[in-house]
Amino acid sequence: MKTKILTIALIAIVLYSCGPSKATKMAEAEKAALIVTQNEGKALYENNCAKCHKLYDPAGYTAEKWTGILKWMQPKANITDEQRTSIYNYLVMNK
């Protein structure tokens, strides 16, 4: 009887340890959050910037250039700092 309980406990421990780790779950959550942020930034870029001019290829400018461009365009597009950051993240991550 004792042997059966120990065997079942050992199998349970092995099965539990084979499941996804906390780090894996956190990485998946971070990836999902990044996708949401990317989609938000893309939507803001397309909906606000395309009102006045063509959309530029994200790879067309460096991260530093995008910083200056977005700061200059922010008042014209009437977007918040948070929205500007979302657009910036989308642009520099899609080069």
Description:
It is a single chain. It is built from four helices and no strands. It has helices at residues 2-18, 22-49, 63-77, 81-93. α2 packs across α4 (81-93). By secondary structure, the protein is mainly α.
Please give a quick description of this structure.
The chain has 95 residues and is mainly alpha-helical. It contains four helices and no strands.
Key attributes of the depicted protein:
95 residues; mainly alpha; 77% helix; 0% strand; rod-shaped
List the helices and strands and how they pair.
Blueprint (H helix, E strand, L loop, with lengths): L1 H17 L3 H28 L13 H15 L3 H13 L2
Tell me the fraction of residues in β-strands, as a range: under 5%
Main sheet: strands, sense, barrel = none
Number of strands: 0
- How far is it from the N-terminal to the C-terminal residue, by CA? 63 Å
Structural class: mainly alpha
Count helical runs.
Answer: 4
- Residue share in helix: over 70%
